[in-house]
Amino acid sequence: MSVEKVSDQSFDQDVLKSGAPVVVDFWAEWCGPCRMVAPILDEVSGELGDKIKIVKLNVDENPETASKYGIMSIPTLLLFKDGKIASRQVGAAPKAKLVQWINGSI
User: Fold this and answer.
1) How far is CA 61 from CA 5, 27, 82, 90, 96, in A?
2) What are the residue numbers of the active site?
């Protein structure tokens, strides 16, 4: 599974109404740490694809959702379960830490 992109318009359907837990990567094109996290999330999505869905939301293109969830710095990862925030990870982190965070939250 690859990391899908979501938008302000699709967020409700793709994330909040998802039957599986969803990790949302709030990112922007100009953000260096965001670019470091992206390939890690692609790998994790491949490994945990049956347990979890991972999506990306560009904060520059979708300010409404970023504002709604109080995203102040990026990258910020939010893990949603049953339409609610279950966990938050701010800043870039190594793969092992991200996998541990996801597994600990689902």
Assistant:
1) 11, 10, 25, 20, 30
2) 31, 34
| Dihedral-angle region of residue 102 (phi above 0 means left; psi in -120 to 50 means alpha; beta otherwise) | alpha
Residue 67 CB neighbours (<10 A):
11
Answer whether 4's CB lies under 8 Å from 55's CB.
yes
Residue with tokens 């998802």: 18
Q: Specify which residues 88 forms β-bridges with.
A: 78
Whether this prediction's pTM lies above 0.90 is answered by yes
- Scored b (16 or more CB within 10 A) or e, 85-99 reads eebebeebbeeeebb
Amino acid present at 91? G
pLDDT averages per 10-residue partition of the chain, 106 residues: 90 97 97 96 92 96 98 97 97 96 94
